[in-house]
Amino acid sequence: MLFTSFSFQPYIQTALADKGFVHPTEVQEKLIPIISEGKSLIGQSQTGSGKTHTFLLPLFDKVQPEKNEVQVVICAPSRELASQIYQEAKQLASFSETEIRVMNFVGGTDKKRQVDRIANQQPQVVIGTPGRILDMINEQALQIHTAFAFVVDEADMALDMGFLPEVDQIAAKFSEDIQFLVFSATIPEKLRPFLKKYMQNPVIEEIASKTVISDSIDNWLISTKGKNINHLVYQLLTVGHPYLAIVFANTKQRVNEIANYLKEQDLKVATIHGDISPRERKRVMKQVQNMEFQYVVATDLAARGIDIEGVSHVINAEIPDDLDFFIHRVGRTGRNQLSG
Q1: pTM over 0.85
Q2: Domain layout of the chain by residue ranges
């Protein structure tokens, strides 16, 4: 199937050609027609399945540039994810003959400037983190009640990071006939009441993960029985001289414990988890990209929405409860035909 099979507006086809997109992914092929029909949807699919364009394309196709009002609101749980979606949305908007205003509302940016900027002109597409979007609504600056679609991306991650109450408050501002789109790698039990509250008979689509662990990755199972796991992680990190290694743990507390132990052994370690402020996380990510750190200890947050190039080793200090998370973690290495 080709993207041209979808009857998108010409500017969208031009934007797709500019990105070199010819064939839709399985997720896009399956879900774009449902979203184009205006149906509410719960889409369970993996990161990296082309999910962002799955909702951006059909929603942009319906945006009316001549209307000076908010038409689409997209919530993402982290600044990194929101910024990635924003970049893709800006690329699409740049090909529209009539300006489509897209704005990114995330913490760590100048709130007053954003309030002033939208005083006379509302953005038509709102992207951002739940906290900042809610802030802008409570400041009476952002008027979202006019939107026809609301997207919650990586909903399980929003739940995990404690942002669901904010998402709930945002959702309550819309009219009852809003098109509600929720994307999530997993649907945890604690997410279900929220979905039930806002979604009457949504289409539920689970796209089975085809992700298997790449052939270029060697997998080693190491017995930890009777061993100090922190010390074992240290030994693994120092024996093979990794180019860049990520150590994964299931909780923020465990990440801190491992990181502190490794620092005591004089290793320079970066820590990434939900309790680290967005500004600090951005700074750490920059340092990792600049090779100032050889070791990163992280929760699953880091395995999703954050792209770290050149990872040579992944260590699972704990096995995640969800197999998909394991595939996500291991998939940080062995990319672009490199071994891992």
Answers
A1: no
A2: 3-206, 229-330
